[in-house]
Design brief:
Helix 2 (52-64) links the parallel strand 2 and strand 3. By secondary structure, the chain is α/β, with parallel strands linked by helices. The radius of gyration is 18 Å and the shape is globular. It has a seven-stranded parallel beta sheet, with helices on both faces. The longest helix has 29 residues, at 116-144. The chain is 42% helix and 14% strand. It binds nicotinamide-adenine-dinucleotide.
């Protein structure tokens, strides 16, 4: 029997990238999907976000993989919109078994130069949005006595990093939130974990702002320069992992095999953490 036969998985930020990959992989292993995305750009984000068409493409890919899907535009900062997403999922499929709080943004600024708006959008989406997503499903899962929650943090959720201090602060916060909710839900059959990726080959890093961050002294550069700069971060010498590589860990944490694991922050990091203190 497929690993997620009869299960329902909610994924935020499902319009593209890792969120789409998780959704399609869940569908391929038997799950039905409840999908959401903001589907609009945001002023402080130096690259475009997913569109409504992207979210429709995710739905088509889920269906092609054998799953059913309900999809709604919803910003993770919007409590009422998230409530509608959860309600639509329960109405369509009878409940939510798995929630993946994946939606997020990136930005580039030193702390000294950061505007209030850049800071606030980052914290409201990458930390507040995870809080609101977790809150939207926590009571439902606790009442049913089962559930799997996975939130996306980052390798920089455990170290400092220059030029992305707001992102780092939010991703540290996600780990604290996950550990706290894990304790609150442990006796209710619900596990709560974080996944901490290194660079992933998505639009979040494949944009001019991030290329300039990695190659600040070069007025022009080739893709080989970019790959070389990203590769320097990783002991396993490749520049980035693929969304599918993160889905492997997200699906494991959402599976029955991970029922004894809660409150953890699991790296998929090409050896990144081998250089940090244990
Ligand atoms: N790409 C990387 O290198 C990397 C590394 C570590 C962690 N992450 C994290 O992985 C997660 C997925 O990112 P990705 O790499 O797939 O990038 P992505 O930009 O391709 O996907 C992010 C998705 O979130 C959506 N989104 C953004 N703001 C939203 C909001 N307010 N409400 C609802 N949806 C919103 C976007 O539209 C997009 O579809 C994020 O939490 C990100 O911080 C990414």
């Amino acid at each position: 029997m497929p690993r997620f036969e009869g299960k329902v998985a909610l994924v935020t930020g499902a319009g593209r990238g890792q969120g789409r990959s998780h959704a399609v992989r869940f569908a391929a292993e038997g799950a039905d999907l409840v999908l959401s995305d903001r589907c609009a750009d945001l002023g402080t984000v130096p690259y475009g976000l997913a569109s409504a068409t992207d979210l429709e493409e995710t739905v088509a890919s889920v269906e092609a993989a054998g799953g059913r899907a309900v999809a709604m535009e919803a910003d993770v900062r919007d409590t009422a919109a998230l409530g509608r997403v959860v309600a639509a999922g329960i109405e369509a499929f009878g409940g939510i078994d798995i929630a993946v709080a994946n939606a997020g943004i990136a930005g580039v600024s030193t702390i000294a130069a950061m505007s209030d708006e850049e800071w606030q959008n980052m914290i409201d989406i990458n930390l507040g949005g995870v809080f609101k997503t977790l809150r939207a499903v926590a009571g439902h899962m606790a009442e049913r006595g089962s559930g799997r929650i996975v939130a996306t943090s980052s390798v920089v959720g455990r170290v400092g990093a220059p030029n992305i201090g707001h992102y780092v602060a939010a991703k540290w916060g996600v780990i604290g939130l996950v550990k706290s909710l894990a304790l609150e839900l442990a006796e209710h059959g619900v596990t709560v974990n974080a996944v901490c990726p290194t660079s992933v080959d998505t639009a979040m890093i494949q944009n001019e702002a991030f290329r300039e961050l990695f190659l600040p002294d070069q007025s022009s550069y080739t893709m080989a320069d970019v790959e070389g700069a990203f590769t320097e971060l990783n002991p396993i010498p490749i520049p980035w992992v693929q969304p599918d590589d993160i889905s492997d860990t997200v699906l494991f944490l959402a599976s029955d095999e991970a029922r004894m694991i809660t409150g953890e922050a699991v790296p998929v990091a090409l050896g990144w953490n081998a250089r940090t203190a244990a």
